[in-house]
Amino acid sequence: MWTPTEDEKIGVVVCSFRGHVSHGLTLELGETVQILEKCEGWYRGFSTKKPTIKGIFPAGYVHLKKAIVANRGQYETVVPLEDPIITEVTSTLQEWSVLWKQLYVKHKVDLFYKLRHVMNELIDLRRQLLSGHLTQDQVREVKRHITVRLDWGNEHLGLDLVPRKEFEMVDADQISVSDLYKMHLSSRHSVQQSTSQDGSRQRHGESCRMPVPHHLFVNLKSFTYNTIGEDTDIFFSLYDLREGKQISEKFMVRLNKNGGPKNPEKVDRLCALFTDLSNKDMKRDLYIVSQVIRTGRMLLNDSKKGPPHVQYRRPYGCAVLAMSDVLQTISELKEEKDFVLKVYTCNNENEWYQIHENIIRKSSTKYTAPSTNYGLIISLQLLRGEMEQVRRENPMIFNRGVAVTRKLGFPDVIMPGDIRNDLYLTLERGDFERGGKSVQKNIEVTMYVLYADGEILKECISLGSGEHSISEYRSFVLYHNNSPRWSEVIKLPIPIDRFRGSHLRFEFRHCSTKDKGEKKLFGFAFTPLMREDGTTLSDESHELYVYKCDENTTFSNHALYLGLPCCKDDFNGCPNIPSSLIFQRSTKETLWISTQLSSTKLTQNVDLLALLKWKAHPDRVMDILGRLRHVCGEEIVKFLQDILDTLFSILDDNTDKYGPLVFQSLVFIINLLRDSKFYHFRPVMDTYIQKHFAGALAYKELIRCLKWYMDRSAEVVRQDHIQEAMRALEYLFKFIVQSRILYSRATCGMEEDQFRASIQELFQSIRFVLSLDSRSSETLIFTQGPQPTTGQATANQGNCLQPLSCNAPRPSPLSAALLNSFPAIFDELLQMFTVQEVAEFVRGTLGSMPSTVHIGQSMDVVKLQSIARTVDSRLFSFPESRRILLPVVLHHIHLHLRQQKELLICSGILSSIFSIIKSSSLESSVQEEVEMMVESLLDVLLQTLLAIMSKSQSQEAVRGQRCPQCTAEITGEYVSCLLSLLRQMSDIHFQHLMDNFQSKEELKEFLLKIFCVFRNLMKLSIFPRDWNVMRLLTSNIIVSTTQYLSPALHKSFTDADFDFKVWNSYFSLAVLFINQPSLQLETLTPAKRKKVFDKYGDMRVMMAYELFSMWQNLGENKIHFIPGMIGPFLGVTLVPQNEVRNIMIPIFHDMMDWEQRKNGNFKQVEAELIDKLDSLVSEGKGDENYRELFSLLTQLFGPYPSLLEKIEQETWRETGISFVTSVTRLMERLLDYRDCMKGDETENKKIGCTVNLLNFYKSEINKEEMYIRYIHKLCDMHLQAENYTEAAFTLLLYWELLHWEERPLREFLHYPAQSEWHRKEGLCRKVIHYFNKGKCWEYGIPLCRELAFQYESLYDYQSLSWIRKMEAAYYDNIMEQQRLEPEFFRVGFYGRKFPFFLRNKEFVCRGHDYERLEAFQQRMLGEFPQAIAMQHPNQPDEGILQGDAQYLQIYAVNPVPENIDVLQMDRVPDRIKSFYRVNNVRRFRYDRPFHKGPKDRENEFKSLWIERTTLILTHPLPGISRWFEVDKRELVEVSPLENAIYVVENKNQELRTLISQYQHKQLHGNINLLSMCLNGVIDAAVNGGIARYQEAFFDKEFISSHPEDTEKITQLKDLMQEQVHILSVGLAIHEKLVHPEMRPLHKKLIDQFQMMRSSLCHCFYVALQGLPGLDKLSPACSGASTPRGILATHSPMSPESIKLLHRHSPLNVLGSVRHSSSSLSSHTSSETGNLLILTDSMMEHPEDLYRMQPSPSSSSLSSTHSAPSQMINSGHGSIRVGSPSLPDRYRHNRELLMLLPPHRDRPSSAMYPNITENGQPTNHQRALYHQVIGPCKPCSDPNLSVADKVLTAPSSWSLDSGTRDTLPFLSAHVGSVMAPPVPPRTLPPVAPAPYTCLTHQSTIGPGWQ
Fold first, then answer.
1. Helix/strand/coil percentages in the chain, nearest 5
2. With 50 as the cut, is the pLDDT of residue 714 above it?
3. pLDDT of 1823 higher than 50
4. What are phi and psi of 650, to 5 degrees?
5. Residue 1065's closest CA among 987, 977, 1005?
6. What is the CB neighbour count within 10 angstroms for residue 694?
7. What is the pTM of this model?
8. pLDDT class for 950, splitting at 50, 70, 90?
9. ∠ CA 680-682-688, rounded to 5°
């Protein structure tokens, strides 16, 4: 039986469950499940990821967690009972995991690995928190690390910033908006200092920040100087070179002779921490000095000097390291860094005391550098923070037993509990007598610390940290030196109780180096540690007397020498010393030492001692108190309690006499504690007041003195002492209150009234001081100079919007000091007075401050800072005091906001007030306080915000403004204040607010202000994108406020009082609100969406309902918002929220209905809707997920409650439906345009979209302005893609809209306001320029003529001259410049995945220069990476057309030129013909060979048919796009006989042209071209070229079986016969021009021609038998004439005879069609440059040619063929032949390649040297030459020989050879042109066309190349 669970409510899946049982719930490891019921080891519940799916799962698969259950039952909510930060880590990691995988997919590898590292760290930190074994400090530190990593990850993943308090997420409902803003700001600035201080910043008052101490960690890793061989002591210390002194204690390391630590426990633990280095210390010229002292023989290398058992401390070497060299390195690193220190040895031991200085100063003569680089290897690390913090953060360092090494002296900050009593003694030097010896002594000093009773104090001498203290100190020995200088520092940590009476004794011994090695005592010195007056040994150098003694002397009776003078001062004090004493002073021997005391218990100050012992000298009290000011602060804080007790005992002794002096001394001490160095002693003062202070009567004198000072403030000129008293006000009141409490306790509350009266009088004096500023402000302005002050600097910081006046007056220092201290006394007063009484005191005092804001900014700052502290005080937290204080506080803030002064400080005060009111509102009512704030602040806050926002927008850098960020910060502060206020307002407050407006004008002004501020909040993005919590809360407050204000708007500004401005402002706000990105819940993750929805609901819907409601309230006034609000409302409908759209639909119907009523149509609605749709798309506005627009259409114009359904019920039904249809079609195009523009789409897709849209605006909607805009967008795209010709055609569309009139045109796009004539002229020039850049000069020439006509009609001869010259230059360019002929490709786009403008359509595309089919296909597949290339040319079936995929079908097509006449004119240069072959073309053709019927094995040409497809485009190419759509297609079948006629006719035309050129001497000199052409035809004819046609079509069987083809057979016979005539003429010319070396070739041609002729004659004779109607054979085939006879009988042909040979058949139309050579298949790529030469003998089967190519769907059917003209002309990119993958049987021998020039020669110049007459080629030669290289040879021409194939088939590498280089004579070619080539059309209007693609296809023939 399933029962609801009680405690088992939530669990984590610990083992995945597949849910194979009935009703099983599939669970993955790590998921969280909520449990509803249980039954026998099973649970029923759901995963929190999918709460709608419920099921059962085994109880053992989940780990239960404790949870809190609210609202038990069906709708219960369960929250895990765990640390909130653990919950956050869990949910954040789950969110990150999805995004983390996406990083890898998006190739953001760097962030991918960084995030993985951070996620692993978070998992580890979470594990530490869950373990429960951490201390509170460790937990806090772990949480800090977690939050830093969470915020880092959220920032880098673009997620929301999480506001925190104490490392935990805050609930926005529990804190004020101002606090929330500050938490966000704090997190953004620094995650590490996130919200440890409640996120608040200290803006007011003096900073209490303590200086952060530095600590240097030093670790000795090894000492590699092993040449010593003795024990060594190494001392490390910090040395200041500038001051020439050591600033730290020494760190001592003891090593054995092997270099290891003497104490084995210290292995890897030789480290020290030099503590308490201040910022000032870090700027010193510091060095780490390391001194090496060995312990062993006297001389290292001399074993004779001293016996081995006697050990001496001897100096060895020194090493230094400059901190300046390493400081930056160790500051940046978080770990230790190694350094090597060279150890230098001293050349002269007399210089040992300053060896470190010599090394630093590089005095190299005084030391010896080591022979190697080895030495001391140390590692350094710089740590920061208080010692406790350093211990906490670096436990590993302290676990290693680090030696804490302190500074000599006190640190910058003296902590109260820091008890020290260290005496640092420096053994400086000594002067000793030789004592009758020949050499100087080796002197060793031994020192002891002895107590008063003569006992040697144990362990009171420390050579350095890191080693234990010792009882006896022995100095190192300097060899043979009677004036040794040691400069060795020794620390004496003597207990405080043993200090008085103790003394130091120094014993001097000579260390003999003889065999015995004796150490002989010869003298001693001593000094007491404390003088008789109680002061310790002063911090200075002391010269001690040396007394003689010997080895037998005993010091057991120390009194014997303590009575002697120890130094000169001591001797002066006791001059009468008997000379008979046991110890005699050695007058020539002295010892110098210096001491430094660092003690918190002992003093060296006489004045301080005199104060503490004032009773000993009562007559000097006045003097003693006066001298207290001169005592060092360190000494005062050390004896703080004793001094205070002394002062109050003096006060009690004689109040009248000593009162003022004690007061001054107390003020001095209190102000001393304000110093940051002693700030930490304030708690000591507090403790003293609370626990030790006993001055019960002191309050009377303190009040009296304080009042006396204040009352004299107006009279005294020097007010320094009064200012000090004002600064000490806080502690003075502490003493006063505590004294009164003590007195009250002692007297049971006597004199209470007198005390209250005195306090009242004191406050009167305080108000008197403050009122001085108000009365003397004018005086201040004139008496204070313009010098800058600290106050001004503060003002500069506090106000970043106002310029600071140079003459701004300083505040009265007295008032400033008083105002700064005043808020600190509130807590003390509350001990004696009620909250209301204190509040009244404060209100009276604040009220006495000057209320004007012109007394100077500095005073304003001080005044506001005092108010700020008042607000932050405990007093303000009481509701009863707040009601008293709030009016005066708001009064001052209101005044400053009105004047726009000190905005930053005012915002801080307001933030604090709102924070307090918010926290109070959770416990009690704050209605009255909110009411006060609304009345005082709401209007001025709006005014201030509008001013700030306008300045923020204009970005005016005003003098006095700190920075632009400051403006943004102030804006955020005031926005948060306004939102806090609005959030606290209830309906009562809003009602009172509305009632308080005196007139509708005031209400209107208020509404406009608040709506404007709200709009700016959304437009200006006040809060960063990732502050989603802040943005959502802002939206919630705005929508709530709007709901409160809507009734007032409706009530006051409808009907007769209608105000368009207010209503328009309201609607604009509503539209902006709904479109906010932060409210688009669809973009959020499901979990985040649910969280937002649960908290706020969908605020868009709430605002939409408000909007609809207000629209309905407008009534007849709706017409005022048509068409103005159509666009904004449309923007609302674009929000992908169904409910919002449903709400908005009736508004659209209303608009259409109202305009229909008013105007009889709704053209305005239609026009505005279209404009808005366009702008939303093209400007990137609207919903990010723009595909949702289709949902809009289905709802707006689709099912109920559709607009279409509403329209169908109206009288204007037809118009409405037409409107809906056009908008729907526009939407389809706009969507495609949007998709292309917003993504990384290729330029071609963008151009195609734009063309599509442009056509729509012209043809369907007729929106001329939109049309023109898109013309220019399209033009810009073409220019970016360098499609200059297309750009020209595009701009021509606008040009055609304009007329040559003087009508003025307004400024539009980038055009200035100008006349229509000038705009058209400018456009014309631009179009001509683009045609020039696109090398389409033929199109530019008519425009030149048009312009010339205009200039001529205006007599503008200068411009006319310019345009005529340009026209002439274009003619020159046509004849001289190289132009490549593009290839054309047919592309089919099939499938529903393509954009609308491409879907299931076919296009022809004009390829780029040099672009072949393979490259084109790769480009297309690159543009459509999801597309599948179809491998066949067949039309796709319905499955492909309707499939949910993309299919591309691409193959090349051939252009069918429109202008046939130009191409058939003999003397037109091929450069001109080339242009007309590929331009102004709208018909394209491609052929597909196939066999009809049975295939003839012997001669396949008999059954080889051609399927010829002609594609007709919507517009000719080139045009406004490189693509145009296929309008229709024509399909014809060409029979084998018709194909043969076509092929032979084309060959005849080519031969005629070439021979004519040679005959008219247009080409001469080099006849290679003619030789190869003749050879190609004759050799092919003999070896089976034409013979194939003879066999196929002149066979009796064929003739008899095809009687209907008689006419065609006759036509073919005539053409063949004509070819014989032409060849005979060609051979005759060849004989005249042939070079003697080429005679064998000519003879061979004659012989083969004879064979060809004989074969034809026989063939025709046979054909006559079957064709009785066939004409008689021509003379060329008659008789048995020999070839020689033929040549003899034919004279050179005249031009007339040539003309007679022309036969124009209908099939000759395409005689010059080029043949594509490209192929999609890479194996047919012509980039290999191979030459394929096919003869008929090699082409046994003509179909093999097709088998060698891929299918027509992916390649040209004749990809091995190319236009011969391109070899020289280079005007086209399709010159390629051959295929690397052809079978070997098609690879011919290269027997005729000898006719070609070597590759290093240019083919044209080698093959065709200049043949000129008088330097110019003849017309005939030129015409013949161009005719030969111009027309293409049909691919199946059987008359083409090997040589011709070689000539006409250069590989693509030869395309770059320009004709101007290879054919120099072409530069003069233009001169012989009879007339300029007139372009074929006078630029008829070019209609825009869809995005299309053009391709080429070649003609099929049997075997010609």
1. 50, 15, 35
2. yes
3. no
4. -65, -45
5. 1005
6. 13
7. 0.60
8. confident
9. 130
